[in-house]
Amino acid sequence: MVPDLNDAKVQRLLKKINSKYEPIYIPVVAESYALPNECYPNVEKKVELDGGSRIFGWQIWRTTLICEAEFHAVWKSHDGKLLDITPKSPPVESILFIQDDSVTYNGAQIDNIRINNTNNPLVNDLIDIHKALFRIRNKGHRAFIYKGTLNGEEAKVYRNLESIGSILQSYIYQGGQIDSFCFCGSGFRYAECHRRELDSLILRSKSV
Ligand SMILES: [Zn+2]
What we know:
Blueprint: H1 8-17, E1 24-27, H2 39-50, E2 53-62, E3 66-76, E4 82-83, E5 94-99, E6 113-116, H3 121-137, H4 152-173, H5 194-205
Antiparallel strand pairs: 1-5, 2-3, 2-5, 3-4, 3-6
Bound molecules: zinc ion.
Residues 182, 184, 186, 193-194 line the site of zinc ion.
């Protein structure tokens, strides 16, 4: 969801981003030619058609567990107004956005910045899974295309990480802690069971 700017977790994430700009809410008015998740070419086309300029920064999202900043391009009109022209799913009327000129966009995907909203270290595991999935999805030339194909071992590691991520998320919502019995029913504590499995998968995600 689009978060409240006064939310303490959101403020912590903004501190981590450390931009010299002020965060603002920007209206979403999707252009008919704009594709979801393709903000960079969408805005490029808008500038070609209508002038103005492309502005880079972060759109901020929040769930109960994680606050997340997603690198994003928006359109700036001649009179200096910012507009998000990329359609969202599910649709939202506005986004929370902070301009940031310190990140250079060269066509390669940029990973989200995430913080743990809770005191539960399992949420850090969830964040590590997101990072590993990003690393695999954007390895080498794949960083320059929105959806590349995964093969063999990397596809297997990716699927396993995705599956553990989804189970782990439900487990956290159900109150799972580092020393609770593992979700897999082995009778071992999470730390001695799927945490270890996860560590080894994350290690493999760096070498596949
Ligand atoms: Zn387990």
